[in-house]
Write a structure and sequence with these properties.
- The complex is a heterodimer.
- Chain A is an all-beta fold.
- In chain A, 0% of the residues lie in helices and 57% in strands.
- Chain A has no helices and eleven strands.
- In chain A, the strands form two sheets. In chain A, strands 2, 4, 5, 9, 10 and 11 form a six-stranded mixed sheet that branches. A five-stranded antiparallel sheet of chain A has the order 1-3-8-7-6, with no helix packed on it.
- In chain A, strand 6 and strand 7 form a beta hairpin.
- The radius of gyration of chain A is 13 Å and the shape is globular.
- In chain B, 0% of the residues lie in helices and 45% in strands.
- Chain B contains no helices and eleven strands.
- In chain B, strands 2, 4, 5, 6, 9, 10 and 11 form a seven-stranded mixed sheet that branches.
- Classes of the chains: A mainly beta, B mainly beta.
- Chains A and B meet through strand 5, strand 9 and strand 10 of A and strand 5 and strand 10 of B.
């Protein structure tokens, strides 16, 4: 069946690095997205991976291994404004997105 | 208008009432989507439309209907609201012709059914 797993909550320190993992089992694969969602706000697009490897975009990087059904989002030089939920979503064969429940990231000073 | 707008921002509704949530985008995206987001669950697709004049059912379509008369608007209607439809509703749009087909979200509507 379809399943996307992410940790429910993580805590990290300002200035540090954190890695948020996502594992998936879906009906086909046409790419994986990461979104950021601040409390009470809409999800906003962070990254898209369709091929294996690391995509770097400023302080944020995203990695994909299709053979392992695994991705991670790496956040460097953490800032207080990075406190948010991070959502992993997989685009299936029918091009619809299946979403994980999200990882709430708490940044402490 | 810049991006996607939704109305109302929030609404409290009596059970059994009819309610339409509005969604408008100005990006000329061909595809639009309605999701609901509940605590502890991922976003769940209610209905979608790949182009004006066509709609399709998502994961949780029961109790909801949509229409897509033009490119910009994609209203979601609850014919007879029930308490289990209490949720935050997000509309999104994407350009199916783009490589990633990234979805962009509206600000959401917080709906409470009593």
């Amino acid at each position: 069946g379809q399943n996307i797993d992410q940790p429910t909550e993580m805590t990290a320190t300002e200035g540090a690095i954190v890695q948020i993992n996502c594992t998936y089992q879906t009906s086909g694969f046409n790419g994986l997205f990461w979104y950021q969602q601040h409390a009470g706000e809409a999800p906003t697009f962070l990254s898209y991976n369709v091929l294996d490897g690391l995509e770097e975009k400023g302080r944020f990087s995203s990695f994909l291994s299709r053979s392992k059904g695994y991705s991670y989002l790496l956040l460097k030089e953490l800032q207080m404004k990075d406190s948010a939920s991070y959502l992993c979503a997989v685009k299936e064969s029918n091009y619809q997105l299946i979403w994980g429940a999200g990882t709430k990231l708490i940044i402490k000073p | 208008i810049a991006g996607i707008t939704q109305a109302p921002t929030s609404q409290i509704l009596a059970a059994g009432r009819r309610m339409t949530l509005r969604c408008t985008q100005d990006m000329r995206h061909n595809a639009m989507y309605w999701y609901r987001q509940d605590l502890g669950l991922g976003l769940r697709l209610i209905h979608y439309s790949n182009t004006a004049g066509t709609t399709g059912k998502g994961e949780v379509p029961d109790g909801y209907s949509v229409s897509r008369a033009n490119t910009d608007d994609f209203p979601l209607t609850l014919a007879s609201a029930v308490p289990s439809q209490t949720s935050v509703y997000f509309c999104a749009s994407s350009d199916l012709a783009s490589g990633a087909d990234t979805q962009y979200f509206g600000p959401g509507t917080r709906l409470t059914v009593l």
